[in-house]
TrEMBL record:
The record marks 148 as: Transition state stabilizer. One of its GO terms (molecular function) is DNA binding. It comes from the Bacteria. Mg(2+) binds at residues 7, 34, 146, 148, 246-247. One of its GO terms (biological process) is DNA repair. This is Exodeoxyribonuclease III. Its cofactor is Mg(2+); Mn(2+).
Length: 256
């Protein structure tokens, strides 16, 4: 089972790239972030023609998450508990082929300090409350998406530059660490324990050409799935396609 994550940064504006990658890579399941479109504008029919069922939670101009699957999708949740005033479309969850898959787009949190950073930390705490509930079920679970956190110094080309960036602040990294302590496994870091792996390259200053990247997109696997991990990689070349998202697709394969 090949599961991918792709922050598409505007699905309708980059639909051609998405379809090209789907055809070349052939993932079974794809978690998309930053749809930047309303529910009504989501390209369901086009994706269906490509063989993918879909569930999504859109939002005008910002955020938005979706799960695409070659298998049947049974939606189990959208949004997180804990803040009835939170209107951001950042979490959607489904049961697919015997696996619970949560697709998330964690808040960026910049600038630090400030209310956006406070919202990021609170959202992470709400996520952790939900993951504790997921851990109580005897089911395989994968939490997939753009976490907007660089957990280690290997996850950024220049750690010293990001010390006061919300993506690398110690508070963000500490909460990510506490999430792992619940029993979750960082799949890509497990596969590449000592390598600099990037999933995001800024549009500015030829970041992609210089390989000045960040690892923001992660797969967290629970105890029922961690031993099923076979391989994984970043399709970094997609970032170099014309009119590309600033993220590249990332994928893992599970023996399920």
């Amino acid at each position: 089972m090949k599961i991918a994550s792709y922050n598409i940064n505007g699905i309708n504006g980059r639909l051609t790239n998405l379809l090209r990658w789907l055809e070349e890579a052939g993932p079974d399941v794809v978690c998309l972030q930053e749809l930047k479109c309303t529910d009504q504008a989501f390209p369901e029919n086009v994706l269906k023609e490509f063989g993918y069922n879909a569930i999504w939670q859109g939002q005008q101009s910002w955020n938005g998450v979706a799960i695409l699957s070659k298998h049947e999708i049974k939606e189990t949740r959208r949004g997180l508990d804990g803040d009835e005033n939170d209107t951001h479309s950042r979490y959607i969850e489904a049961f697919i082929n015997g696996v619970v898959i949560g697709c998330l787009y964690l808040p960026n949190g910049n600038p630090y300090p400030g209310p956006k950073f406070d919202y990021k930390l609170e959202w992470m705490r709400r996520l952790m409350a939900h993951t504790r509930k997921l851990s109580a079920f005897d089911l395989p679970v994968a939490l997939v998406g753009d976490y907007n956190v660089m957990p280690t110094e290997l996850d950024t080309y220049k750690p010293e530059k990001y010390r006061n960036n919300a993506l690398f602040r110690k508070e963000s990294r500490e909460l990510f660490g506490l999430l792992l302590e619940q029993g979750w496994t960082d799949a890509i870091r497990t596969l590449y324990p000592d390598q600099r792996i990037y999933t995001f390259w800024d549009y500015l200053r030829d970041a992609y050409g210089r390989n000045a990247g960040l690892r923001l997109d992660h797969f967290l696997l629970n105890t029922q799935l961690k031993d099923k991990l076979v391989k994984g990689a970043v399709d970094a070349d997609v970032r170099g396609w014309p009119h590309s998202s600033d993220h590249a697709p990332v994928w893992i394969e599970l023996n399920v």
